[in-house]
């Protein structure tokens, strides 16, 4: 434990004496600087003064411009002294003072003299100082010396020049790039660190030249005798080459053998770097992964915390994408739960939660319960989130997991931690029907003693929506009504709303709710009173058991479908008059402006569908946008909108991407266009679509953009009709047509006359997956059983030879565009058969469940059995058609 | 669907290594005392632009780590999206910080180099008083380990050798320096304390 060093008790009292810098004052030290000007220099005294200056700077004191200049000029006098120690301190203080360019000139000649000195220590340090303070013009003067220094036989000098080169490359790339030959020579150096620095600089110089980096790696991976640091660099560059060649190479990965051989290196840092590089390869196969996992597993039982931490962190990451590959380490992981280092323990637990199977859940929970009491909130949140994922993966285990959550909910904790628990319980209630009643009661217990207003109101709102739908809604009333007595106004108002919801939904409870609500009419807070009065009036029936009318339910439960910003503006503009405020007059259009502003500044917007294709509520946003266009209103309800597909390369004149909107009998293409040429104004922009390879579609209308000024995105739409209920597919070729007008850059005014022009865009395909929405189910077996086999359709297919099972599985998942359930998209290492469960909603809102069984034989031929269940026979057949034609 | 949305916070911390990080980068090296006060610190990154930001980092890092036992082996933790390695001896706390995607073992080598070279230079008499009295050596030592984030040297013998060369015969080439000489120099340095 951190004990201050106290030898004797009385020592402690004079602890202040420990510091030679006690009572140091900047003013006094600045006075002392005068000794630098003495004709008879005392090197030791001067060193001490510099140390004091450095101490002040290091403690966060700062010198004014004048003070710094004064100190700097005095320091330059010290170059007269031949004392080595003093010279070192002079170098240090010059670097700290970071002199301005006119000051630099004064020391340049002294430093250049040192650079050519016979003393290696002078040379190395003078190079570093000079390169630190130099500017471009000076650099050209000393370039010759630096090139020599790079290949100097003294490793310290060479390293000093190379490291300086790495930093200078940022400011003066054209100069440093001329040093390639010398740096290349230094890469062959026998001095370990010189090679390391040379390799880093060479890669930086050539980083934009893929081929050169690839050659560099090829030549060096064959070599030997390297420092571990240089070897780590080589691993990084090799994996860069692998990453960049990912699209062009087929078959064996280049340099994989090199990475694997590094797993047997004697230095741990190299083994770890290689293991991590392998786990991060895109599309890594299980065969490639295994040796890396084995290497990391050995580290797990190391006596050094750093090794255990590094290994468990890397494995935790692997567990996200290849949970099965990590299961071999589970025993080692479990022993890490009791690790002294809580970061290691947390990483181990979250890894186990990802890789664990259903049977180990109970045991794991027991271990975690002991563990939770002695870790910090930040770690607890991580664990809670991992448990939530686990529960969704194994819904049958909800009881023990829900128990765990409710237990920790009762313990001490900060807001973020409690919020994470509450969020998790809410998600579990939503996704696991069986967990609902117990979960709601846990939340009720929690608000009885909850210090966070935000959480209380959120829970009350949730209770109001879910509680009335349970078998015995009355048992929640007590908890809710208690809030009206015991809480602050915000929570009271929320509780009143929740009571009203129960009253509206459960007719039998209405009389009691009325009694309770009437007691709130005299609340001290006006919001609570207003809500109560409103609900008493709208619930109707005057306390009798009657059915609630639809309008009231909409008032209580309906979401406000008007953007709040628009409502606020309209209300501000409303002038009190005879005519009441009409909420229908408020525009429902989402203004894209505020969204566009959110985009990271400085980053040039490319595909301008981005503001719309933003965060989760994209479908809502699209729906609102489409509903503003009257022509589309007859199309019915929007089924699905695709992610934006880019139709242009990055950095072209016009950036266009397209979103496919699928309706029952129509498909609408929304082209998001951006004009990236400041000197042009585009008018009457539309997209001409050629349907020669899309027979089933017929264009019904095209909606051009009137005007498309520079850098302001606009949308043009083209709508097609297609036969109802058929998954029409096809390829569409697109041409952008517009009138272009020159814009005067000085005035920003466009010329009168424009020229008609066209711009070829890339082709777009509508595929079967466009008609499928990814919608998961939490418990596939239940869903499968309850769907029944009325419209079951089973058939077998041969998929031909494949690389491995995982590839075949992901191909079929992509083809169908369905949501994999219960983690079955992950194929275990080297397995010869696999079952994959998929769920989705097909066009026409038909739920579809798919069970895929794969098998692979010795010659890598893959066979698949496809079983489909859905609510509609035609849809079951369609799924089979998609697979057989895909 | 839900599962995807449920990205653990920790997972976010461990994902995605920036391609730009072509070589290991050290963000700072700190030497604090047993109350978390600065003995000597060196920052190589813009992550902490002001002195107050630096002090705040040191304060919370110290609070987070002070209770751990980092006396026999170096310890490690995630802190503010950084990896921090640390080791304590007597009333001195040594820290090395790197980015969250840095190879932990490379940072460990830097910490080891820092720690061991200071031990050599202070003749194993490693405590705050000794460190302050030889603060020039500590500054020089920091200067020899990392240059603006780039690792210069991790071998403690070489680092201590370069620092101690100060008062050696200027004509002696560095490479011929033995650790014995380095120690002798360091010892000699000790005899003349800073403020007599």
UniProtKB/TrEMBL annotation, chain A:
It is found in: Cytoplasm; Golgi apparatus membrane; Cytoplasmic vesicle, COPI-coated vesicle membrane. SUPFAM superfamilies: ARM repeat, Clathrin adaptor appendage domain, Subdomain of clathrin and coatomer appendage domain. Residues 576-615 are annotated as: Disordered. Residues 769-883 form the Coatomer subunit gamma C-terminal domain. The keyword Transport applies. Residues 28-539 form the Clathrin/coatomer adaptor adaptin-like N-terminal domain. It is a peripheral membrane protein. It comes from the Eukaryota. InterPro entries: ARM-like, ARM-type_fold, Clathrin/coatomer_adapt-like_N, Clathrin_app_Ig-like_sf, Coatomer/calthrin_app_sub_C, Coatomer_g_Cpla, Coatomer_gsu, Coatomer_gsu_app_Ig-like_dom. Its main location: cytoplasm. Residues 585-600 have a biased composition (Basic and acidic residues). The coatomer is a cytosolic protein complex that binds to dilysine motifs and reversibly associates with Golgi non-clathrin-coated vesicles, which further mediate biosynthetic protein transport from the ER, via the Golgi up to the trans Golgi network. Coatomer complex is required for budding from Golgi membranes, and is essential for the retrograde Golgi-to-ER transport of dilysine-tagged proteins. This is Coatomer subunit gamma. It comes from Salix suchowensis.
TrEMBL record, chain B:
It is a peripheral membrane protein. GO terms for cellular component: COPI vesicle coat; Golgi membrane. It holds the Pfam family Clat_adaptor_s. InterPro entries: AP_mu_sigma_su (IPR022775), Coatomer_zeta (IPR039652), Longin-like_dom_sf (IPR011012). Keywords: Cytoplasm, Cytoplasmic vesicle, ER-Golgi transport, Golgi apparatus, Membrane, Protein transport, Transport. Transmembrane segments: none annotated. It is found in: Cytoplasm; Golgi apparatus membrane; Cytoplasmic vesicle, COPI-coated vesicle membrane. Residues 26-165 form the AP complex mu/sigma subunit domain. One of its GO terms (biological process) is retrograde vesicle-mediated transport, Golgi to endoplasmic reticulum. The keyword Hydrolase does not apply. Its main location: cytoplasm. Gene3D superfamilies: 3.30.450.60. The coatomer is a cytosolic protein complex that binds to dilysine motifs and reversibly associates with Golgi non-clathrin-coated vesicles, which further mediate biosynthetic protein transport from the ER, via the Golgi up to the trans Golgi network. Coatomer complex is required for budding from Golgi membranes, and is essential for the retrograde Golgi-to-ER transport of dilysine-tagged proteins. The zeta subunit may be involved in regulating the coat assembly and, hence, the rate of biosynthetic protein transport due to its association-dissociation properties with the coatomer complex. Belongs to the adaptor complexes small subunit family. This is Coatomer subunit zeta. It comes from Salix purpurea (Purple osier willow).
